[in-house]
Amino acid sequence: MMEKNLNIKFENPIKVSLSPLKTPEQKRKEFERNLKETKQKMDDAFTDVGEDIHVFLASGKSFNQYTRDRMSTSFESKKSASKRVLSRLNKEKSGYKPKKHHGKFDNYKFDKDLFLQEIQQNPAGSTINWSLLARKYDIKSKNGTTPKNAGQVLKEYAKTKNPNLTQHLRLRRIRRAKKIIIQKNIKISLPTKRPAKNLKTDIKRKVSSGELYIGVPVAPKSIVKTKITDAGTLNQEKEQIYGRKIPMQHIRKSALEHQIQSGTLRFFTDEEYINISDQELRSRFLRIQESIPENRENAISFLKSLERTRSIKLWHDHSDILNHSYVCFMLSWLYDTANYLTNQEYMEKYPERRPINVQAEVEKPKIYIFGQSGCKDEEQMTYVETRLEDLKDIDTPIEHDNYKIQDCLRLFSGDGPARQFEGGQQRGGNYPCLCGVHAEEHTNLLHCFQVSPQDLDDRCRLATSSNSLRKLKEGCLNPFQNLKKR
Ligand SMILES: [Zn+2]
């Protein structure tokens, strides 16, 4: 263009590029290498040293769903696979010889006669798992190693020794190939997630080694399963199922470790309590707005008990998942400035960290029990026994590096029915509310102020008095219902 406009003739073309010139061959090779490297990196990212099983478990997908998703994203469709196989078969019929993927058969060591004998005994039309056979005959190559395509070698060997076998057995199955990227002459398969089978074995291994903790089985119950047999008849089977519980001790310990690690917990050693100055003592009481006992000894032990007792909140609810009803119990720790830093203090203590909402961090719920259960009292009672075991144990302090902390169950929160169950109140009816006010009188303030609500102690006293305890022990969960007037 410049030559034309300015009417000058350049002897040599001007080179603008500053980097050394590359031949097309070099460029192609570099491109190929980059593509392969990228694929390898993406394959690694999918596995991420086994992290993919966490992604899978958190997704809530079934193994089958995972496989379906994987097949549809990274593999060709069934239709195109069968089309491809068919056109290949036609090609082979018209004389096309596929590339060989094996060496000379003399170089492979295995019991050839026995193998040919076995292969002929298979009924017509049956499919054969060649790689399984390869493992059975323990094929070794010349240098004594097991070839990776041992199954393929066996198949080809059977085909060449006995050409009639092609009619006799189904030698080719339609297999969906990975999607490939074709760029000029390069074919590269799409990076693919691991097959579900591999995830399954990984998960099983991690569960049995304890790396993935799934708690202990609780509240066994037997259910009737209805199955349709191959013959088409309905078959009823009894099966034992369990709920799952992460023991409270385990949650308390891991929560303590997490709180210490995240830096939200305020904790002081025994020596720090003994050597506390009077001024510090006063300011610490002032901070949590408690009055100081006069005696120094008492003040220190009171402060210690306040600062070393965490309060637990329990929550539970019912929900239906795929036509089965489940119960779920969660635990969380109640935020208290006596135990935890305030947002301001957190910012001052860790200026290098991102500011967080300490209360939200502390009150994150942790799963406690999960299992199948109807919403009836009788069914929910099946979880009471195992909960009681944990409650008896709650007074044992949790230890971490010579530092002990106490926990106490302080509060239950949940919806109406869950609260009524926990408080021993009837469900529904005219008096569903724990406050003891008639359902229709809740807007009547005058009436509400006159009713004094019963606390848990009152309820316990009532339940254990007279013959209601006997009724409870006999399995009658509502001893106060259907009482006769006298
Ligand atoms: Zn009420």
Task: Write structural notes for this entry.
The protein is of the alpha+beta class and 486 residues long. Among the domains are: 26-75 and 179-212, no CATH class; 102-177, no CATH class; 237-267 and 308-423, no CATH class. The chain contains 22 helices and nine strands. The protein has helices at residues 2-6, 24-47, 52-59, 63-74, 78-93, 112-120, 130-137, 150-161, 165-168, 196-209, 248-262, 270-274, 278-287, 296-307, 343-349, 358-362, 377-380, 384-393, 416-423, 445-450, 456-464, 468-473, and strands at 180-183, 186-189, 216-228, 234-245, 309-321, 324-333, 366-372, 398-400, 403-413. The strands form two sheets. The chain has a seven-stranded mixed sheet. A two-stranded antiparallel sheet has the order 1-2. The structure holds zinc ion. The site of zinc ion (ZN) has 4 residues, from loops. Residues 433, 435, 437, 442 line the site of zinc ion. Residues 21-48 form a coiled coil. Keywords: Coiled coil.
